[in-house]
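#lab-general

N.A. 3:47 PM
ok so I finally got the sequence cleaned up, no stray characters, all 689 residues accounted for. can someone with queue access submit it? mine expired

B.Y. 3:52 PM
send it over

N.A. 3:53 PM
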Amino acid sequence: MVSKSSSNPLEKLGLHSSLDCALHLPIRYEDETKLSTIASVINSFGISTVQVQGYVVRQEVMFRPRRQLLVVIRDDHGDELFLRWLNFYPSQQKQMAIGQHLRVRGDVRDGYYGPEMVHPTVKAVSPDAPLPSTLTPVYSATAGVSQLSIRKAIDKAFKDANLEALFAEILPQDILKKCFPSLTLPSLWSAIHTLHHPSKSDDMESIQNRTHPAWRRIQIEELLAQQISLQQARAKRLSRQAIQMNLKPKKDGILEKFLDQLPFQLTGAQERVWQEVLQDLARSYPMNRLLQGDVGSGKTIIAALSAMHCIDHGYQAAIMAPTEILAEQHYRKLAAWLLPMGIQPVWLTGSLKAKEKRDAQALIASGQGQLVIGTHALIQEGVQFSRLGLAIVDEQHRFGVKQRLQLQQKIDDVEIDCHQLMMSATPIPRTLAMTFYADLEVSVIDELPPGRTPVITKLVKNERREEVVLGLSEELKKGRQVYWVCPLIEESEVLQLQTAVDTYQALQTAMPDVRVGLVHGKLKADEKNAVMQAFVAGEIQVLVATTVIEVGVDVPNASLMVIEHAERFGYSQIHQLRGRVGRGSAQSICILLYSPQLSLAAKERLQTLKETQDGFVIAEKDLALRGPGELLGSKQSGDAMLRFVDLQNEHDLIEKTKDLSVQLLSFYPEVTQKHLERWLGHRADFLKA
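B.Y. 4:20 PM
back already:
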């Protein structure tokens, strides 16, 4: 067994035992089975990663333009290749002494001195050292832990006489075959062994792209553990008690009055979602519903109706937003709706003065504060609700699950869960919802309110910046307002990007008669709010901002957004930013300024954003680019994430594994617990949260 000594660097990777080591599967493989001549890779450099061999004929530490190690190797045919390191250690210099035979692997490119590899993988070998017969696994590592030490630990783990027994089959084979009839699955032990030590007879391509039967078995095992955990979480929620509200609005209540005087009609999608929420609130167990809708689709009105329904039943409602700006927008909008009916929302944020905070907390504790709106301050120490019946969490992916659970409480000495409605303008791809939100009911507002026109997106090279400024002037003459978004606030030597401050000053110079404002993350909260409110009031015509406005206020008069260095932003960021305009009836435009030197990925990203405004299409693209961790937020970050499953390509596998989890929970509950312990350990509770 691997030692549990705290001095063991492997502990940084969570490798405490032989089981941990065996489950630390490769993230990729290197093909070291082939050896190329230097001449062949020089003639076709840049195509793929290659491996060559030769002896060192030159080694030199150079200082121009910066300190670097330069090594030249020569193969048996007399051809030479430069190897270059910008960061290196004395031990590397010793390893690559003149005359030493090296086997190096990397990408060949045309360098300053000639064909070169930069920071290649290097092995000191004898001239006749045999090549590996199969793929070389590469493991997830961390600082101070080398691939060699990980491989040694894994090899040692496989010598543990008890290891095979730890991977004994526990899943009923008949059900496994029934759920996956088209797959020939190896035993779990065989799959684990194959992935760490692929043989010559294994299909190398399927090993590398994770479609090999051994990978399929592991993917099913991991998905199954997650699905069981989420199914159990759902069962646990259904056993909890919550406040039951009537299906129909209370006679002469604030909800009924509000609906009677509503100045607009709900869209078909809003009406459908509202009925779904009403059904949930009428149940005896807590609602756990995710409301998805693109920016501007009208989620806030559903939140308002839900809060009023709760207040009509004698309970408090709370709305929590991730930023003070967004929380204040909710506060102003709901106050305008509710004050005429005698409901004064309570405002609670971290920036309040001590006395204001105490007063707000007193109103909440007494129950007089029927609707509470704020930021994370709602779940801080000192905040005690009297009768909280509903918690609405906006931009839910910005909050951790533990934060959301802090809204649970006791009412009348009975453990009561408040209903939870989570809202997101970042659409969750279907595969993500299936795998991480199994305990959530999902509602989608898939139509925009009447009068909203799609935003036109244009791609403009940065060299046409002056033309953009002229176009901006024309928009201002119509009485419109403009956002100008920059990715950085401080100068970066690496990126050399235009900063928000510089852009602000440049626009002031170019348009002296225009009122230009600046907002960025380094402003104090009250300064930021003052600028934003001035923009809302029309006192500022052009707002230069960083991404602090990504989740921000509604300004119907803003019809133009310029996003500078758009190639530096992700899919969802640009989509969210773009949603800040197009709030009124006027045609709105989003201009994506970009640098001419674009990567293929950046070109594809910008083109997709130009061609579609469908949030779900963009979310799928974002999932493929960034993976699920960033999209989901803090609940799923870290070690609860799926490690071996590609959510983009495993739809069928996910569906079948979900069916398998249901069957096992129904007929083999003891098996499910063993499975959870093997695959998740302490993380099972993490997923259940």
